[in-house]
Design goal:
The chain has ten helices and 14 strands. The chain has helices at about 15-20, 40-50, 70-75, 105-125, 175-185, 200-210, 235-245, 260-275, 315-330, 345; strands spanning about 1-5, 25-30, 35-40, 55-65, 90-100, 135-145, 145-155, 195, 255-260, 280-285, 300, 335-340, 355-360, 365-370. The chain has a seven-stranded mixed beta sheet with strand order 2-3-1-4-7-6-5. A seven-stranded mixed beta sheet has the order 10-9-8-11-12-14-13. About 40% of the residues are buried. The mean pLDDT is about 95. Keywords: Methyltransferase, RNA-binding, Transferase.
């Protein structure tokens, strides 16, 4: 079995490990900003297609002691790169981590690239070109405590970029984080889902994809592994067919989103059309002050501005108080989840949360607050 590593947002490692196990991964071990696991090639393709939380799935090629540039050179040279890369394929090297003597990632990446193309020149008399944006083979090098791990990036562009969302608002929530928040909440498709501050629609759309069992990787142009030398097209087509056959035709309960800004509602509708769920999810332009519960019970979900990127010049305290009033007065019988990166503002909601979960939105520490509304 091959060794893989799924990179995820900080704090979501355990949740990602659970998702990997559900997809059939073996020997799953949560780590820092990711989870290690084992499996075959079919699992690698399956995780890229079906997993909702990871950014990238890395295939571990080698690991060796690496104290300095000389160790790095020898370790990279010991790998037979002809198994993974021919001169007609482009490459890129991404380096992360550092040690006392290798503390500059740009130098590390350059050193690794030089060793690989030198090996190609010796063997083939030709070398791969470097392509930083869309390489055929993306190589990852991570240095931690004088150990170097070398991987191939099977995903290509980050998996959080599903491909259905060309239109985004001013401070978009990553699709993978939206999926994680929904997972943490315990929301089930049999419950109505409503986001009254939906922006370009990420939370309702991720809820819709989950409820309809649509694999998030189905919207992507390509994965990194599709240009690998050992790419198995028939296997990949079979898994994609399996994903399509597993999709549901109807939602068990409504999924709604609204926002005061008509322009972002247009973006949300465009995104829903791109991922083929426009007939399932409902978006409308409504002021928060006009929002009412559309059913007797359900899950209310929102990501209000924190004052970091949106709302710096507005009275956010009054906005959060309004949010709390709407919840108290109009959503009895519902469960509400509010993601906030500002503790002071969250107090203005005026409700006592029954649960708080620490979450990172990028580098910003946030809390997902749960409110039981009686």
């Amino acid at each position: 079995m091959n060794q893989y590593f799924a990179t995820v947002a900080r704090g979501l490692e355990t949740l990602a490990a659970q998702e990997l196990e559900q997809l059939g991964a073996h020997s799953v071990e949560p780590g820092f900003c990711g989870a290690a696991f084992e499996g075959d090639r079919a699992l690698l393709y399956r995780v890229n297609l079906f997993a909702r939380l990871p950014f990238r799935i890395l295939w571990k090629l080698d690991e060796f002691p690496c104290r300095d540039a000389e160790d790095l050179y020898e370790g990279i040279r010991a790998i037979d790169w002809a198994e993974y890369l021919t001169p007609d394929l482009t490459l890129a090297v991404n380096a992360t981590g550092k040690s006392d003597r290798l503390n500059h990632t740009h130098f590390t990446a350059l050193q690794v690239k030089n060793v690989i193309v030198d090996q190609q020149q010796d063997r083939f008399g030709a070398r791969s070109d470097v392509e930083t944006q869309e390489p055929d083979v993306r190589i990852g090098v991570h240095i931690d405590r004088e150990v170097c791990t070398v991987s191939l990036d099977s995903s290509g562009n980050s998996l959080h970029r599903r491909g259905y969302r060309p239109a985004v608002g001013s401070a978009p929530l990553k699709e993978s984080l939206a999926a994680a928040l929904i997972q943490i909440s315990g929301w089930q498709p049999e419950q109505m889902f409503y986001d009254p501050l939906c922006g370009s629609g990420t939370l309702p759309l991720e809820a819709c994809l989950k409820a309809l069992n649509i694999a998030p990787g189905m919207f992507r142009d390509r994965f990194g592994f599709e240009t690998w030398l050992d790419f198995d097209l028939s296997l990949f087509k079979r898994l994609a067919q399996e994903a399509q056959e597993g999709e549901r035709d109807t939602l068990p309960a409504p999924i709604w989103g609204s926002d005061r800004n008509p322009n972002v509602i247009e973006q949300a509708i465009a995104n829903a059309k791109t991922c083929g769920v426009l007939e399932h999810v409902y978006f409308s332009q409504i002021e928060l002050s006009e929002v009412c519960a559309p059913a007797d019970s359900g899950v209310f979900f929102c990501n209000p501005p924190y004052g970091e990127r949106l709302g710096k010049d507005s009275d956010l305290g009054a906005f959060y108080k309004l949010l709390g009033d709407v919840l108290k007065q109009r959503f009895k019988g519902w469960t509400a989840f509010v993601l906030s990166g500002n503790k002071e503002l969250s107090r203005s909601i005026g409700l006592k949360s029954s649960q708080r979960t620490a979450i990172f939105n990028g580098t910003l520490p946030c809390q997902l607050m749960k409110y039981e509304l009686y």
